[in-house]
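Supplementary notes for students who missed Thursday's class. We covered one full example, reproduced here. Read the sequence, then the structure, then the short commentary at the end.
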Amino acid sequence: MASGKNPVFDTATTLGKILAFLGVSAIGGVLVAGLMVPAAAVTGNAANGSVQFFDSLPSELTVETPGQVTRVLAADGSEIASLFAENRTYVPLKSVSPNMVDALIAIEDSRFYEHGGVDTTGILRAVAANLRGSRQGASTITQQYVTNVINDALIAQGKDSDVVLNGQKGVGDKLREMKLAIALEKKYSKEEILEGYLNIVFFNRNAYGVQAASQYFFSVDAKKLSIPQAALLAGLVNSPTLYNPETNPEQALERRNLVIDAMLQHGKITQEEHDKAIATPISLKIKAPRQGCAYAKQAQYFCDYVLHTVLNDPAFGETPEDREKKVFRGGLTIKTTLDPRLQGPAQEQVDRTAGANPDKWGASLVSVQPGTGKVVAMAQNTRMLEKQGLRFTTTYNFNVDRKDASGNELGGAAGFQPGSTMKPFTFAAWLNEGKTATQTVDGSRRVYPLNYPWKTTCKPVTGAYNDAEEGLGAAPTLQNAEEGWYRPLAVNEGLYNSINTATYASAAGLEDFCDIQRIVDAAGMHDGEGQDKKLDMSTLSSLLGPFNVSPLTMASAFAVFASNGTYCAPMAVTDVLDGQGKRIGGQAPNCKKDVVKPDVAKGVNWVLQDVLKKGSGSWNYIPKPSVPAAAKTGTNNNNSQTWMVGYTTGLSTASFFGEALNDFSARDGRNVTVNGQFYEQIDGAYIAGPQWGGYMQRVAGLYPGGEFENPPQSMIGNPQPTPRPTATVAPTAPAGGGSDTPTQPSAPAPEPTKPGRDK
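Structure (token representation):
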């Protein structure tokens, strides 16, 4: 007659020997250690060694919040972009469907609420199953949570190579995991462990944690998961690759149904719910996450500017690595100044101006709010990635300094030559010395030789305009765009008509040439490299902007005039909140009042309004805002970089069109076709001007601006306007002005470009 012993538990078998060893184990920790010792190690010495090894293992585990998605928001709360190293959104257990909790426990750890971190019954069952030739694990949810916490910490520290996967674990790894699990159960409740596990576990390379997985596979929140959906996700935990429903639908279905069977077996669902769930086909609604500014829902380049604002700020970490970790793993909420009401029209306008040009001309718009410095719109006619709708793709941000954008760091845009948009600063210096806006200067003077006696109290003035001294370092004799302006004329008239000789005549009439430098510095002007390098205004050519300045810098500088003399540094980030909603940083308006005398700013405003009424920006193809506005056009020497910078009392905007990749030395803006329109030469009023006007006409009313305050009459003087030279015909209205562009009038046709000329 056969023995009554169960052959599986016979002490003569391997398992029997293990159980015999267990019989002499007196405490839970030693019991666990004994279970993990190989069957051959059953002597007293081996047992003692295992106990000592187990006791030496750490029992403390630091549980930190796993990496989460950081969200960048516009001023109205709408999302701009999400940033993450791991796509994860932490949710409390109450926001997870009970179906998900039941499915996970049923398939992964049915005795979860009965054990203290390590399930000895489960281990025995697994050993027996393995001896029978089946493969069965015995790790509890708590043990799995320990492994995930350890691995997540290693990844966060950049130690990916130290991560130990389940199949790679040795005896020591398992013992450590079990001891930490036991300790964890003493510190946290079952619900806290479940919540932590559900939020950290890996489902897919696009989905970490249950909320991200629910959104990725089904486009629903975790709290709305149905039984078959929850079962599918619970099945994924065992092998995210093997049971991936996108790539292995048959295996995923088989695993899902196994989970549903387990849910029925453990009383989590009824037979009717089981049968209905089994009959339900897998129905995915993939919602792939889009990480980074390149996939921003709006304002790609503003997003990148914001990202660099945070990454460059030591307030968010001592080192660049610390700051990057905080941004891409910290679950931050970054609130910004972007106004979608302006961003949409700005993007539409630059795309209309030059969105599909094969020659890769750049177009950009950036707006700031005078008096606060808030950057409310930032757009350009490119996209960061191929197949995003435009033929011109680049990571370069046309609107900001080199240090403030990803592509720019790689050698991209670092500002552009502002040309005659620099002239208002010479005029402001003129007014600051107590001179009148309508005083007559000698616009006929074209020669300023090398030994000209400039008055200066700081750096000596260098440079000259004199054909006779070209061999000695002088530039050719000064030129205007039109012949009729070489005559005496009022300073204000010279400014709104953008006459080069008038600008130099007013500079020559200053008591101190250094006053131009002081005005430029006060307005926050600096080189586009972004290293706080001041513009050097001591050379004569500097009056016509031969250096590179970013559009954001220009918009902020002109905002000084709009706000009657207050300079505000650009700001883009109002608040940064951590994962718990606590404010940990952000910018506040950084303004200095009266950097330019209020009356001087009013005087500049008084003249620059005439640019749009009767000067270089007055042509009918440039739409005008419905509120009072002032502006200045500008073009560099070879017509490759053109501007209109203008403002109301509520909004200051820099509009740029031209060679944006700083290859302007290799091509110029003459004899070119843009949007089907041929130009003998591009002028600031021709494309940048209509772009500015079309945009400002739509949005200026959103930032109400009243009338500009007039300067004192003593500053104006006695206006004596002179007749404008006879104009020839300008190009047809540029497409950049939009469908509401008024009929084009006659306009001056610029003469061939020469050094120092203006548009």
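Commentary. The longest strand covers residues 362-368. Residues 7-56 form one domain. If anything here is unclear, bring it to office hours.
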